[in-house]
Amino acid sequence: MSKFLLAVCACGLLLSSAFAEEKSPDQRREESKQIVEGLPKMNWARVVASGTNQRIGFFYAVNPDCSANGDINIRVTKQPEHGTVETAAATDFPSFERENIRYRCNQQKVPGQQVNYKSAEKYIGSDALELLVVFPGGFGQEVHLNIDVR
After folding, report:
1. Which domains does the chain have, with CATH numbers?
2. How confident is the prediction for the chain on average, in pLDDT?
3. If DSSP codes are grouped into helix, strand and coil, which group holds residue 101?
């Protein structure tokens, strides 16, 4: 009986590898495109006083001990039509939810990247821009910002 069970297990192992599907280079390339296209998309709205340089975003990545987790790369993928956008290294308070292991980091400033927007002088109206934010470890998100300039 034990020889029979051993033979059945060995057969099962051999057959399982025979049914495994090997992916072609084209299939792997298509899957990698889906991962890039599958970035989380955030939509934010901000109100900015006309002609003033205003912080409209702060991005950070920290370890549970609140130390920096690595560099954040921010790319402006769509420039605003009625103003300018710039990024700069900065420190500020994070905003982790209470359930997050990093919640205690909210009590101190952490390093990150700040995004600033300044409208053209005396411009009043709507503007928009888009960012690609790449975090340490290969995580990223796309951010669309609608800006109400007043």
Report:
1. 36-149 (2.60.40)
2. 83
3. coil
